[in-house]
Amino acid sequence: MNARTLLGALALIILALLVWELRWVLLVLFGAVVLAVALDVPISALRRLLPLNRPAALMLVLIGLMLLGLGLFTLLLPEVIQQVEQLFALLPTLTRRLAELTDRVPWLPDLEHQLIQSNTLEKLQPLGGQLLGVAGGAANTTIQLLLMALLAVLMALDPRSHTRLLVAITPAFYRPRMRQLLQECREALGGWLAGMTLSAVVVFLTTWAGLALLGVPLALLSGLICGLLTFVPTIGPTAATLVPLSVALLVSPAKVLQVLVLRLVLQNGEAFLLTPMLLNRAVNLLPTVALMSQLCLGALLGLPGVLLALPLVVVLQVFCEVVLVQDIMDHWDRQGEL
Fold first, then answer.
1. Does residue 37 belong to any structural domain of this protein?
2. Neighbouring C-beta atoms of residue 338, cutoff 10 Å
3. I need a surface site. Which of 28, 51, 191, 236 has the fewest CB within 10 A?
4. Biggest alpha carbon distance in the chain?
5. Considering the domain boundaries, does residue 119 fall inside one?
6. 178, part of any domain
């Protein structure tokens, strides 16, 4: 092994360690890029319709988003708060109903007794320390979200300068290709965001309407949770189904079955009909790739990693198709033919 190879390997190790130490900074940066692309989609559409420069279009989009949020806040928030209060009021009843069901399973009481006999509870941190940890985590998350939003607005205000910066640090022979690659990443990510947003809105409205027609309590809250968790494919819809199922359990076992059928129909319709139709051919992610990316980033970075796993895979897929397949593998095939 010569000195150049040794120095290259050492540089890669140092770079990997640096990336790991800065993983939260990079996570905030990538989240800002996703938000900037989300802002750029309506900005570009607005500029095609009206003779506006980018700062004016960005201002109109931000004002429109604030007005939309204020309208939804005014219309839905009182009902959501009321249903959250109802959910907390129903928790004791739900706990008793679940206890009645678990008493019918022979091995569950024995499992509970074994857990109580063990010293697991004694190994837990004091409640005060846990509350301080939760408060500190919430404050840290709030700061990260604010930084992410600020960076996203700055990127959306002048995307060309940021693109030129990335192109400038690329070798001269690859700069035209890098411009094309960044444009394809932007189109793929923008198409994914637009498709998933429309899909989430449809899931929210159909779930809300379906649960209301079935007479299930807390229909609005359940529909809102199902719509938001649509952005976490594979894991999110399954987890969201637990909320309406738990509420339906308070009504009757027959209602649980009805809610389960409704969610299965809506979830499969969204996964196999609506989302592929909205995304069209812009993004074609295998379910196994999506699930593994969520599991890996969730294990490394927690909930933020799960939320940003799919946008990251969309970008990495474009990089792999352009750089790895077209520029490297296809180039090797052409050299082999020669």
1. yes
2. 4
3. 51
4. 75
5. no
6. yes
Span 210-228, average pLDDT: 88
Segments forming the whole domain that contains residue 284: 16-103+137-337
Number of domains in the chain: 1
**Which H/E stretch holds residue 34?**
helix 23-49
How far apart CA 177 and CA 163 sit, in angstroms, is 13
Residue 129 lies in a domain: no
pLDDT digits over 278-332, tens only? 665 556 666 777 778 888 888 887 777 888 888 888 888 888 888 888 877 776 7
* Cα separations in angstroms, 217 against 159, 162, 163, 209: 46, 49, 50, 12
Tell me if 234 sits within 8 A of 294, measured CB to CB.
yes
| Length reported for the chain | 338
DSSP state of 285: -
Span 130-135, mean pLDDT?
51
Is 170 exposed, middle or buried, given 0-12, 13-18 or 19+ CB atoms closer than 10 A?
middle
CB-count burial class (<10 Å; 0-12, 13-18, 19+) for 233: buried
- Nearest CA among 206, 196, 211 for reference residue 311: 196
Mean pLDDT, residues 45-56? 89
Integer Cα distance of 50 and 75 in angstroms? 30
Six-digit token string for 265: 């129909």
**pLDDT, tens digit, 9 for 90 and up, residues 149-182:** 899 999 999 898 888 988 988 888 888 888 999 9
